[in-house]
Amino acid sequence: MNSLIVQNPYAMLSWYIKHCQIVKAHLKMKKPRGLKKYYQRLETENDLKKLTWFDLEDPNAWFDYWHLHFDWNGLGNNSFKKRKPHLDKLFRHFQLLEEETKKLKKDFQLFAVLQDYKSEYDALYFHTRNPNKDNFPIKYNSLKQESTFTNQDLDAYLKKLTDYEKFYGSAEENYCVLFKKGLGIEPN
User: Which end of the chain offers a freer environment for a tag, N or C, measured as fewer CB atoms within 10 Å?
Assistant: First the structure.
């Protein structure tokens, strides 16, 4: 049986770290493959159908800030052209969830939170009373209706969404909370 004897484990570790950095840099430089199909799927895919446990008809079901992200890799961080299909999918799922909530026989909150530039943090939230914490309903008291966004493309996109109430705030980054009046308990 051949075995590798390492005289200096620190040299081996140093080589391994350097090798990982080279591989990581190479992967960043490689042209991403399959993006055309990825963006085509964004237009049609229903992520709610993939969730076998998501049953709003179950009277024992509860949701503690349950949410879906649509741009896990942050493809839309540097390009609104790449972000828009993810936003379109988010708002399409908002409408799908709106339909699903008609089955629900309890109070709920349905809202989206969008970041100014960090697309991977954009999410659609569904929230009900839950055994984890006494945090229902959530209230956003310090938000304003005046936009705080510096991302002009995103701001223009949001202005076209006339069915949604929009409230803006700032933490590590400017953000917007969107919901529909009369749909569940409003978070403002």
Answer: N
